[in-house]
Amino acid sequence: MRTQLTRDDNAIVTCTAWLWGNQGHIVTNNQCFSSQEMVDAAKFGFDVQTTGCDDSCTFATCPIGESLIEKGNVKFIKFDPTLDYAVLQITTDAKHFLSTYGYLKIRLVAPVLGEKIYIPQHSHGKAKMIATTDDDLGSKVATIHYTDYTVVRNGTTYSHLIAYTADAVPGSSGSPVLSREDNTVVGLHRMSKLSLVNTPPQRHPTHARLQLMNKFLTDAEYQHGADTPTTAPTSKAPFHFLDVGCGPGVLTFEFAYRYLNASPPTDIRITATDLSDGMLHQLSERLKDDPSLQGFASKVAVVQMDGLTLDKVESGSVDVVGSNFGLALFPGRSRGWTSAHRVLKDEGVLMVTAWDPKSTQLRWFDEIAELFNAAGGAEDEPMALPSSIVGADKEKMIKELQEAGFRNVEVYHTSHTIVFDDPNGMIDAIMNNPLTAKFLERLTREQMKSTLAALLERDAGANFFQAEEQPGSTSADLFADGRPRLISFAAYTILARK
Ligand SMILES: C[S@@+](CC[C@H](N)C(=O)[O-])C[C@H]1O[C@@H](n2cnc3c(N)ncnc32)[C@H](O)[C@@H]1O
After folding, report:
1. pLDDT (tens digit, 9 = 90+) per residue, 212-262?
2. Architecture of domain 2-214 in CATH?
3. Does domain 349-463+478-498 have CATH number 3.40.630.30?
4. Residue 146 phi, psi (nearest 5)
């Protein structure tokens, strides 16, 4: 739809907006609307279009299917200047507009490099046009060229942009960027025809991406509403997050803080599951004892369960399945993918993290496995290198997920530096992990601990520099100086949709 607002200096500003989901929400840019006053003063024009996309009409003469103008018909709901979006909602007879003009759905998974797109828009406030190519010759299909782009415009840096090539000019701000593959919205157009440094001149990086999981979850209620059938009752079930292999609760608590603490709180419930009762005990104790988490206890169900079967979770009952270094590492994980797919609602999202086989800690375990193998006799079966078992092979993982029925599988490579303030504590935690027991069949505890300490110290050395030569430590404890040890890790975050 076309929006129209008259500024104080009498200039008319037009933008593009669109209906999102079946609850009458309107999405556009924050630069177009940032307050209820602006909404009250605006005109919303539906079906501003001509037969055959004839563009001979002007802003003033283009035919309009219907206008929504009266104050009180549209509510300003929320905005985000960084992501440059604004969400409004039709409050009077939304059903009429939805059934007459239809609505769009947002894809929860971000666009991928090379994805083909198109952009319906009201350039210069004129009749609807659809940008399908990246130049006026119509030879190249509009395509995503960058998925994490940074640009400086008028002294301001804009980061995490999706950049694409598509015809777009002023007035198209707020337009939906649609995937040609599934006709869902994969972006919100925000800037056109920038002068960019280091960028081929014909490319017009645009758009703040609807930031993947973060954005999706922040606006969980709206996302949910977008996919509810029109006949559904207005009272929705809470958003359901399932943490598989939750361990002591890293992901569960991240969700709890972020979404239950939101104002107003997101109506969300969390099911935290793990095979190990020790892990679940740790999580429950923290939920009970940590004052910052106590308020969430009633929203978190702690259930002992095999992540490969998820047999205590109803089919089609979960909005997001998350598993932080869990499901992707479980032996026989294909069964786990199938179960995750079963419990997810249609359009639900799977988010798992997995280690890069070359990541530091997997190299440590490979070296310990080599010691283990060297300690065995000629007739002993050698242990496979841990990196080859739990390290993620991304192509294999994508294939497995597709075979389990997931679509839009995306894999992001991430690298992190972890600061160990208490390196000995970390080594003790490894020593107490049940998986370590296997190594202790051939190595002594002392041997394993000192090997881990030496490996940690070696790799932390790559991240530490000191001007003055220090006297060597005489302590048996490599970490007696109390300095933190910084270790780099590499992993994958994998997103997929049912
Ligand atoms: C590397 S830990 C990750 C824990 C947690 N997600 C975190 O981020 O700290 C893997 C977890 O998976 C659990 N686990 C292993 N096999 C499992 C299975 N088949 N079903 C459920 N949980 C399992 C372990 O008990 C452990 O808590």
Report:
1. 344 433 433 333 333 333 333 334 688 999 999 999 999 999 888 888 777
2. Beta Barrel (2.40)
3. no
4. -140, 145
